[in-house]
Amino acid sequence: MKRMKRTYAMILVVTVVLLCGASIALWGCGATQQGTAGGDAAQGTGAASAEGERDSRESESQGRRALEFYDPKGDYKLQQVVVLSRHNIRAPLSTNGSALAKASSHQWIEWTASGSELTSRGGALETMNGEYFRKWLEHEGLAPENWRPENGAVRFYANAKQRTQATARYFAAGMLPVASVDVETHAAYDTMDAVFTPQITYLTDAYGEAARAQVAQRFGNAGMKGVAADLADSYKLIQDVCGYTESEGYRSGEYSDLDISDTGIVYEVGKEPAMTGSLKTACQLSDALVLQYYESPSAIDAAFGTELTEDQWRLVSKAKDRYNDVLFSAPIVAVNLAHPLLGEIGRELDAEGRQFTFLCGHDSNIASVLGALHVRGYELPGSVESGTPIGSKLVFERWADSNGAAFGRVRLVYQSAEQLRAGSMLSGYEAPLSVDLEFEGVEKNPDGLCDYANLRSLIAGAFDAYDELPATYGEAAQKLEQAA
Fold it and tell me: Is residue 42 part of a domain?
């Protein structure tokens, strides 16, 4: 296990402060209004100065009152939080000679990071996420101001990829700016930790057939051909925006027209589920376009000169969202892929003295955990991505009422497309968005919370479902050992 040195934590805090300051200038967000008022007051004297300071304080007070903490109804006290986070904005691999470069006739933007790594904007946004969670924990009384947690009270654990480690470090700098924070990794740098790898570890012929059938049933009665049946408009828009038919790859025959009827899934032991057919190519382009939309100062430039509405950006994102849903969300597949991570979440919820946990992985991790828990359908207002937006957090919460009874809540916290593009949370007073989730078989009380024992049983049941697979689908000839 590798741990971050304490001196590095303090250096990171300073770096983040400088980065956020530069980002304010870059994005030109609304926070400058308060800064201008303060600057004008500083230039004045006497009564003018006092009046300016008073206006500034009143503006700040109004901002604080506007900050949304999404408190549950009723009288409850927050006792524990476990967060499963997706990394923030990363750069796709779009350099010369890459698959993306060959699939578009246009030049992709210059990124502030190497392919697959967290960008500067992603780091600043993640620090803001941490700052918001700090204010929320203080608001709920779980953490004091300028919290310096006792040993064991908090835990940060990330996949060993650069984008996940960096996301965890930036979040920690925003949430605990005066504390030394260790970010655990349990694998060699830039490799995949087994806990965060959504890989098939149990497989038989019967299981594979049942998995494909369940995936297909989620999208109608047309079998695997129905999986992408409603993506024709998405495919066409992606092709038009990218200049796909004029690209090097298309003209050389390496790529062909995107076809809604050629979707297939491959399951192999020790590997992530894989897609065959046009949906794989469409996903790569869709993912890169959406990331470019978040990263580029100009939405028109992000679409290579095409002006897209927000609904059209959702249509662009639909291809990659469908890809992730097909590969990771079907319950029979999800209990296989998410098994080690469900165990990690369960152990954190049961850890004595633990108040806050931050686990940082990927969209596939959140999708598979939610699939294994049989989440009911939900919508994400303000997002062009459905399911697991960039930087989103799956938040497990334990609350206690005035009698000491335990209750649970599970939310998805995310920044809207506007917040991601504008960096509007830099003002410090604008909250990310939040959607309460519901699960099959777990009912809520009138205050919107569920019995904590039922929530904990749901997680334990999803974890145990993996060990029950052989009873239904037979013993596997080859089965990988799960991570401890």
Answer: no
pLDDT for 280-337, tens place per residue? 999 999 999 999 999 999 999 999 999 999 999 999 999 999 999 999 999 999 999 9
Q: At what angle do helices 278-295 and 310-328 cross, to 10 degrees?
A: 130
87 carries an active-site annotation: yes
* Domain enclosing residue 212, as ranges: 205-329
Of 295, 310, 329, the position where a domain reaches its end is 329
- Tokens 């933007």 correspond to what residue? 109
**CA-angle at 293, arms to 367 and 327, nearest 5°:** 20
Among 296, 326, 325, 322, CA closest to 308: 296
Residues 228 and 301 placed together within one structural domain of the fold: yes
Q: Does 54 fall in a domain?
A: no
The catalytically annotated residue of 190, 363, 374, 401 is 363
Last residue of a domain, one of 329, 353, 376: 329
CATH number for 129:
3.40.50.1240
Mean pLDDT over all residues of the chain?
88
Could you say which of 87, 321, 339, 362 is catalytic? 87
Does 35 fall in a domain? no
3-state secondary structure of 82: strand
Predicted TM-score (pTM) of the model is: 0.87
